Amino acid sequence: MRILLSLIFCLINFQLSAQFIPNYDENQVPDFVLPQLLKTENGKQVTTREQWETLRRPEILAAFESQVYGRVPADELSVQFSLLESSRIALNGKAIRKQLAITFTGKSGTHAANLLVYLPKNTTGPVPVFLGYNFYGNHTIFPDERILVSESWVMNNPNNLIFNNKADEKSRGWRAGRWPLLLILERGYGLAVMYYGDVDPDFDDGFTNGIHGVVYEEGQKPAKDEWGSISAWAYGLSAAMDYFGIDPEIDQDRVAVLGHSRLGKTSLWAGARDDRFALVISNESGCGGAALSRRKFGETVERINTVFPHWFCDNFNQYNQNENSLPVDQHQLIALVAPRPVYIASAAGDEWSDPRGEFLSGYYAGDVYKLYGLKVLTRDQMPELNEPEKTGHVGYHIRSGDHDLTYYDWEQFLDFADLHFKQE
Prior knowledge:
The chain has helices spanning about 1-20, 50-70, 90-95, 180-185, 195-200, 230-245, 260-275, 300-305, 330-335, 355-370, 405-420, and strands at about 80-90, 95-105, 110-120, 125-135, 190-195, 250-260, 280-285, 340-345, 395-400. It has 11 helices and 9 strands. It is an alpha/beta fold and about 425 residues long. Helix 10 links the parallel strand 8 (about 340-345) and strand 9 (about 395-400). The chain is globular and about 55 Å long. Helix 6 (about 230-245) packs across helix 7 (about 260-275). The protein has one domain (about 35-420): Alpha/Beta hydrolase fold, catalytic domain (Rossmann fold), CATH 3.40.50.1820.
């Protein structure tokens, strides 16, 4: 049944994608007025960080929760951790490896997701960690034969490395290019990854699978303002953060949450709703992520809701071709991270994700960071290709190349983390 649903979903996606013609012309970007960052719903001007934190920030967070991503019924869930495997001599003695099961329990059962952690050896004290999701299973991020192969539903790929939505040994290490593990360890950081499909498989089946399945009874669906998959994935990242709080080898005060594409949308929402993440990174997250919705450049709200109806809460559908009625826009999502540092990355060949819209969100979010006296992006003109701006609390780069997570991206993220994690 799951295979049939996946095939039907892919066919629908293909047909809808063929019908949609994106705008890639800046001259065709509609006129718009962004929702104000520093004015409350009753018209009060926000001029201090205290007013931001107590008055305006809660309003914006609530609007994103009820109108875009959906609220998480966290009170109906409990989380437990169990160690599945560990080694103190991983990667020829260069690293410590830990593999854990995160078990979510709700009124309708239990569901587990695996967390893979690598930490550098010979460190003094707990280490800072990058946390992120991968797309095809933990075993794909590095060719370590001890990494457990995912048993969850996995998206097929055109190379037939994954077929019939089932991962196996053929795909081990397949996505290592996106996760330069040795570089990360050499720079003094740990890496923690989860397969996003372990938390919630990425197809629309009416929210009966994954973590949703332990909350809702048969025939029940999320309310219009309750979580879609992006909120579910964000909740999974927060569950990993719960584990970091009990692992003495991980510095829970220096955790950077990172995501690419749809998982970049997830990292931003996770960072907005959970202030335990000390640094937030969005890589080419586009519509529903860092890009301004009102620009309607590349992917649009209607297109994303039509092709991926399970990602956002049902209320978000009312803004299809109606972006100007949104009570929020994505510069406000970036601002919710303040005063914690945030880094936004784009690629010149990825117009679908609207690089300029991603940059402008970071630029306009600076008004909140300024309340804290922090350094921000100083002009509304994008930097040149491969010339990152990474010396403040809002960082940005646009690199040459296409939609991907590359070694170059990681070098910038590591430099940004060094600035905020190692020089305080």
